[in-house]
Structure formats: structure tokens, C-alpha cells
């Protein structure tokens, strides 16, 4: 059956047509029973599910926030970067969609195979470079005449900026982004075969008064080893770690051997600072507890027991009489 949802007016019109004989219900059933062929374009093979594309979008939304923070600090101007879209297309179609002369940064992402291409619109790249050189961030597109100094400034800036990929991808893979190539002509860059499926994440970028796009092209070969981690089940599941045999017993023994301070408090008293300064040898301080009241025994400054003083083998000792309830918030 068709997945199209009909409005109430369309349903009423359909029922009316069947009742008046304008439309035959048997013919409708026959059409529904016939097999319908859906055209499939092998050049646009869909190798990622919608769920996986959504996961990649979430990852690069975090990357966009990291880039916004990085460029705001580096350029000292208004910067806003956000994810505009995430699509899977053939590599050839991506190359045709970007300008003939643009800023292309090729990154290796070990331990994953393949390379990631990050294309920065020349207007954005020149605005960044102008700010780095102390200018107002004006844009001047002369990408086909880049000097060696301009190339070095741009490549260093983008190499540092896109190190944030490591943090953004940390939820699915531990990568180490390395800038391996810097190019301006897409025709000279052949990372994968023309029909290879790539995921393109487009970032809306605003630097001061200049706007443009940053496109991240990730070939399927790069994502293939971590595709299972892009599913909702991976994000939602809590991995249960197997306990090492005897771990609980060793932990219990170590806790039992731990030393804790025990304080037997005879009592306390409040005096003024003046009286404290006048204290001398032989003076007596009156405590707030009488001799027949039990002592408070503290474990690590927390009252835990009551006791009475005494001696064992000519040494002072305290005998525990009772347990103090409510001595700590976690007491039951």
C-alpha cells in the first residue's frame, strides 16, 4: 500500500467515487496487489542508514561548537558555525558541487584508513587570514594566486582548528588528525574513485561580516570500521564490564587494612579569645559533659559510638557502649 497519508476531504471524495461507480474497488485491489518496481541508481548507492547519518550529524554539531570556540579565541571577532546538512553522495558529485578554486585540507585520521577532505570557502579562508594578520576580517578571493606565506598561514590555522575532530569523534573512535595535503584545485585531488559513496557534512560559517560554507567529506572507507558505533543501540547501551576474578575480594581486603583515625572526645567548651590568651599552666577548663556521661567516639571526625574510659594493661582505653544513630547521612 502507498505510504501517502490522505486528508479527510480526499477520503470522502474516494468513498463517493466508489459509491457512484466512477471507481471500481476491485480495480483498486488489483493495482495494490501488483508488484511495483522502484528505480535504483547504482551510482548513488545509499550505504548509510538514516540513523547513522543522524549520529554523524550529532558528532559534527559538537565539532561545530568546538570550532566556534576555537576561531572566536583565535580571530577575536564574531564567529558562528553550525551544521547545515548531512548527505551521502558520490565523490564525483561532491567535487562538482564545490568551487573550481577553493581551499582544500586533506587529513589522515589514523588508525582509520583513508583520508578526510575539509573544503573551506575562499571567502571564509581569506577573512580568517586577514584577522590573523591584524586586519578587520575583510574577504578577498584570490585563491589561484596564493603566496607561500599565505599558504603557510592558512594551513597552520586549519591544522590547529581541525585538531578538534579528535575530541568530536572521541565517542565513536580515537583518531589522531594529521594534515597531509593542502590544495586549491579539486581536479588535482583524487582521494577515492568517482562513484565512491561519501558523507558530506556542510557547516554554515560566519566570520564577522563574511559568510560561507565549510564542507567535510568523509569517504565510506574511513567510516566502514566504525559503522556499528553510529547506531542508536550503541549510543544507548551501557556496556557491562566483566569483573576480574577475585577483584571484589582483593578490594575488600584492602579496605579492611585501611587505617582510620579514632578520636575519643571527653567533652568540649566555649571560651572567649581573651580567656584563651590568659590560659596558663594549672588552669582548669570546665567541659560540657559530666563524669557519668558516656564519651563520644569519632571515626574520621564523624560521631559513630559512645563509650566509657578505662585502662587495659596500664594503658588508657575506651570501651564501646553503643552505636550513634544518624552520625552520617548514609547511615541506615
Could you characterize what this model shows?
The longest helix is centred in the N-terminal third of the chain and has 26 residues, at 50-75. The protein has helices at 8-20, 25-33, 50-75, 91-97, 122-132, 148-161, 164-168, 220-223, 232-236, 247-257, 273-277; strands spanning 79-90, 103-108, 115-120, 178-183, 197-207, 210-219, 262-265, 295-299, 302-312, 315-323. The strands form 2 sheets. The protein has a 6-stranded antiparallel β-sheet. Helix 5 (122-132) crosses helix 6 (148-161). It contains 11 helices and 10 strands. This is Flagellar motor switch protein FliM. Belongs to the FliM family.
Question: Quick recap of the structure?
Answer:
This protein has 332 residues and is α+β, with helices and mostly antiparallel strands.
Protein structure class: alpha+beta
CATH class of the largest domain: Alpha Beta
Please, what is the average pLDDT?
80
The rough form would be described as: elongated
How is the main sheet built? 6 strands, antiparallel
Q: How are the strands ordered across the major sheet?
A: 1-5-6-3-2-4
Strand content: 15-25%
Helix percent band: 25-40%
What is the domain total for the residues?
3
Superfamily (CATH H level) name of the largest domain: CheC-like
Looking at the overall shape, the CATH architecture of the largest domain is 3-Layer(aba) Sandwich
User: What is the β-strand count?
Assistant: 10
Which residue ranges are poorly predicted, with pLDDT under 50 across at least 5 consecutive positions? Answer: none
Rg over CA atoms, rounded to whole Å, is 36 Å
Indicate the CATH topology of the largest domain. Chemotaxis protein chec
Membrane topology: Peripheral membrane protein
Family: Belongs to the FliM family.
Pfam family, one: FliM
Protein name: Flagellar motor switch protein FliM
